[in-house]
Model the fold of this input.
Amino acid sequence: MSAHSVTEPTRLSKSIAAVLVAVYALITLLPLLWIISTGFKSGPDSISYPPKVVFAPSLEGYVNLFTTRTRIGAEQFAALPPPETWYDRIVRQSGTVIAGQSRFGERFLNSVIIGFGSTFLSIFLGTLAAYAFSRFRVPLKDDLLFFILSTRMMPPIAVAIPIYLMYRELGLSDTHLGMILLYTAVNISLAVWLLKGFIDEIPREYEEAALIDGYTRFQAFRKVVLPQAATGIASTAIFCLIFAWNEYAFAVLLTSGNAQTAPPFIPTIIGVGGQDWPAVAAGATLFLLPVMIFTILLRKHLLRGITFGAVRK
Amino acid sequence: MAEIVIRNLRKEFGAFTAVQGSSFTIADGEFFMLLGPSGCGKTTTLRMIAGLELPTSGEILIDGEDVSQRPASQRDIAMVFQMFALYPHMTVRRNISYPLVSQGLPRAQVQAKVAEVARILGISDILDKSVGGLSGGDRQRVALGRAIVRNPKAFMMDEPLGALDAEFREHMAEELRALHDRMRATTVYVTHDQLEAMQMGDKIVVMNHGVVEQFGTPQQIYDHPASLFVADFIGSPAMNFLAFHGAVQAGETEVDLGGVRLALPEVQEAASPRDLVLGVRPEHVTLSDSAPYRGRILASEYLGTTQIITLDCPHGRVKARAPSGQGVRSGETVGLSFRAETLALFDAASGRALRTAANRGVHHG
Ligand SMILES: Nc1ncnc2c1ncn2[C@@H]1O[C@H](COP(=O)(O)OP(=O)(O)OP(=O)(O)O)[C@@H](O)[C@H]1O
Ligand SMILES: [Mg+2]
Done:
């Protein structure tokens, strides 16, 4: 059936389509489901072969994610008072005791600050720049737009060494501000181009009506243009956030103690006696949540946004 | 309400001149039409008056004050856009109240004014709807409501009926004119429809290629076009043109068309031998067997009470408006007589109407 078919889809073709979509969704979601389920497995279950699809759920991975543990001698272990909390109990089962908090919470918070901070900054600057490019006679407009885009023509990591040196010189290495600025610099070209497209589609008459109704240019921008660009802003924000949230290479290179984000941290979660897969999976699961929630919240806009205004009225 | 004076107004977009030195005056309370074909600079002129476009040179005086370099928000003018430009993310009520909110009016007063405007326009029942689903007529009314709600100095309307279908247009045109008659607000109205301009306007400016061709009342413009362009643009069917070569002296009351002498209003300026054009409206042509100027009937078009007869004459095609009862046979050769006092004489090269006793006092651009 062609995309331009004018006949109503039959019931059969509808059910075939539904099955195809379900199968496709299953295939793409399988790794995700695997990660989520691994997060709830016990250590031995997570590496058993053949892999276990049905297993006794355990919060061990999550507890391990947020704690550091040590193994103590058998006598000492026996002499311990009974566990006080549910997580103490889980840890005891593997013959260890909690030694302290892990740094996951901190890293996660860093990711939130840097990811959302740079997204906000990219959108803020991008919207203003896109509006100016869309509405005003900017000298050398086309050249500037090309120049802005050209920053994306090489992989950002190609400039890693100069940035590393520059950041060290400026004291921006391993700081939140440094990472926010860096991700903003990478994202802003995308933001300006996407947002300019969306703003171009908003007829000028709306702002002009507002100007005539006694509003200043900035008020017209805020009260009339912004609400109508909401779709574009939302979808651009999602793209920006996904990049900043998942960025790995710069984070490895430029952050360590203070401003390290979750992506370089998660793979380094090592349990007592080898890679702690349930904890890694638990970390990955939690790491997924913010982007997922953000996307779901903005989904209504995103679906309209990624058609790039083709059906906007 | 206000008087608007336009002096030598000019607008260039890069190398292109959209408006070249317009001058005219819009009296207080007038319904003023900016008329011309597509691309002649009507919208540009209107936008300069509203403050959405700054003129390259020239003056715009509103109530005697030069506002030509002021932003739109400080001119106290309301505008109805061609596609209405209602704020799509607001309800009808918010759309109409928006101009008042910018003035910081208290809520109760805003609500009262909106209610009053809605009553005048008959849209009280749709105030809480979103503007998305409204019909063309209702959108039009909301746009008008947004314009009249704050008592501006003047209204600008850019082809406000252009987006409506033909049937509804007539109705809205009447409604608009009635509204104007009630409010007596200075209104500048852009249209390319000469019938609309003639029906609704107190005064008309006819523009072409950025130049004001003529400025006057509908009757002056219809009866005494200042140029070939205006004569051709106004009226349906347009004025007939008989092209001939000749010279005229001041004081003459006849011209010679291929040996036939035709009377016309006394010419008041001399013209050396050159290409001239005699203009006559179809309703001022009568067919009579005795007339010396002859033409062959090509066709006739039945219009109910009248018919339009097309004739082939030695100096060009002529259309005559005649009672539909008059029997005509195509192919027949008949005489044509023209009502002398209505004739106009144009210089073919410049297109300008020569001064005669009839068109004295007509404003050229
Ligand atoms: N911002 C602009 N930049 C460059 N040229 C422009 C601009 N605005 C208008 N023009 C040109 O100026 C001329 C007059 O435009 P304008 O919109 O005033 O015409 P108009 O009489 O309103 O025509 P229409 O009946 O088609 O609306 C046109 O040739 C148009 O292309
Ligand atoms: Mg126009």
In short: Chain B touches chain A at residues 50-52, 71-73, 76-79, 81, 83, 85-89, 98-99, 102-103, 146, 150 (CB under 8 Å). Helices of chain B lie at 42-50, 92-102, 107-121, 136-148, 166-183, 194-200, 218-223, 228-233. Residues B 13, 16, 18, 36, 38-44, 192 surround adenosine-5'-triphosphate (ligand 1) (CB under 6 Å). The longest helix of chain B spans residues 166-183.
